[in-house]
Amino acid sequence: MRWTAPLRPLFRASEGFLDRVLCLLGAVAFCQLPEFIQQYLQRLGGHLDEARHQLAVFETTAASPPFNLTLPQYIERTSANSDRAVAQLGPIMQNSLDRVNELASAESALRNASIWERPFVFFANLDRSIASATLDVYKPAVPTTTEGLLYAAAGMIVILCVYHGCVRYPISAALRRRAARRLAA
């Protein structure tokens, strides 16, 4: 291993550079999650507004004369109608009501979650169609919020731990064992 002695400073310098590059990649990658969640929340809010608008039309129809009914009464009466075409509107209205409740619950949970709870709440309440649509138009960004900074720091720590624990340490240990075997021989 004599020929490697002059190269050691170069290896150390390149390893320091690699650490910096990995820190940067980890920071940029991890801070994308809060940015994606933010863009997802914007789409979720849009879906919720549209669902509430549709539900308001049903509620207005139910409350207007001659019906003067609540929405649940209107849904029940419509579903029980002997005309099948009219009866099919009952489940549609119920689905709209359920959708508004589902979207409102997901939005509230995300908005009220702490910085560290947010990813878990996000995945627990994920609407795949909204997430897919968000991903289709997603624009990577580096959020300049406290949340973005914390996720960037976590990304640097995680990527360095993975690199040092899964790559650098095992290779160093293998090289030390190899050198020890050569010295013993």
List the helices and strands and how they pair.
Elements: H1 8-30, H2 32-63, H3 71-79, H4 84-87, H5 89-112, H6 118-124, H7 128-137, H8 146-184
Helix pairs in contact: 1-8, 2-5, 2-7, 3-5
Relevant terms:
8 helices, 2 domains
Short note summarizing the structure:
By secondary structure, the protein is mainly alpha-helical. About 80% of the residues lie in helices and about 0% in strands.
Give an overview in words.
- This protein has 8 helices and no strands.
- It is mainly α.
- α3 (71-79) packs antiparallel against α5 (89-112).
- The protein is elongated, with a radius of gyration of 29 Å.
Number of E-type strands: 0
Distance between the termini: 14 Å
Please give the largest β-sheet. Answer: none
- Count the DSSP helices: 8
Spans of at least 5 consecutive residues with low confidence: none
Structural class by helix and strand composition: mainly alpha
Order of SSEs: HHHHHHHH
Shape: elongated
Percent of residues in beta strands? Answer: under 5%
- Fraction of residues in helix: over 70%
Mean pLDDT: 89
The domain count comes to: 2
Report the C-alpha radius of gyration, rounded.
29 Å
